[in-house]
């Protein structure tokens, strides 16, 4: 869930979200930091080989994504 401030809050159904991502061929997933324990408490089989990326804030996620696309060094933000 994303708040008005851009904070990423805990979501439910991680197991089913991973299953759905796997079903459409995804290998990576973005999850709220608050779901880190939920992910690592799943069995390897339930993770479907998907790599998680955990973030607290959508703005930081956006900045990192733009950085990756443009190869701009964002010293003040990282």
TrEMBL record:
Pfam families reported in the protein's UniProt record: Lon_C (PF05362)
Superkingdom of this protein's organism: Eukaryota
Any GO BP: proteolysis
Family annotation (InterPro entries): Lon_proteolytic, Ribosomal_Su5_D2-typ_SF, Ribsml_uS5_D2-typ_fold_subgr
Listed GO MF terms: ATP-dependent peptidase activity; serine-type endopeptidase activity
Record domain Lon proteolytic: where: 2-48
Residue ranges the record marks as coiled coil: none
The name this protein goes by in its record: Lon proteolytic domain-containing protein
